[in-house]
Amino acid sequence: MPSAPPAAAAAAEKKPPAADRVYRHVKQAVLDRSYAGGTLLTEGGLAEAVGVSRTPVREALLKLEVEGLLKLYPKKGALVLPVSAQEIADVVETRLLVEEHAARRAVPAPAALITRLERLLAEQRELAEAGDLAAVSDKDRSFHAEIVRNAGNQILSRLYDQLRDRQLRMGVAVMEAHPGRIAANLTEHAELLEAIRSSDAEAAAACVRSHVGRVRELIRGEDR
Predict the structure, then answer these.
(1) What is the pLDDT of residues 142-166, one digit of tens each?
(2) Which Gene3D superfamilies does the entry mention (predicted)?
């Protein structure tokens, strides 16, 4: 029996395991709200969508349940969990504690930080013009994460990274419900960048407090 061509064999070796493919498919759809809160997913439907058997689907759904994105119901499927009011409050409180501290520590800002923030803001503008809400939310989160990383506290950075999935889903929810928020976010990011560039620590912290607080007010009531 002839062996597979080298290129085909290499492609087969690099193909992610079935459970990983299902996991990434479902997680991305939950984060960008293709699977909105309250959606009931079935093993058969997911198996067909990804092109795998049901066994890796179960494995992926169990992992996503542990991460708090789904609730499994035997013989029925998996429910995409809505973003609760308590989760919103917890995420915003944690963000304020971490980001206000990081904004103050960003001053005086190294030139490299200013350059990275300028690039991220420009990329966010381009994505907003293209109407890619999931990508805008991801770039929005990256802008804030860059400031947090600059603070130099690895424990705080890891804590902030743990909020990533929740931030992305909440960000898309806000922009879907309030399209005008996209332009407002860009303006507020520009104001925060200017405060950091001007070496005004308290103004930078105030920008974070106002920006994150507005997001909390807008998202309150979404996906309950």
Answers:
(1) 999 999 999 999 999 999 998 888 8
(2) GntR ligand-binding domain-like, Winged helix-like DNA-binding domain superfamily/Winged helix DNA-binding domain
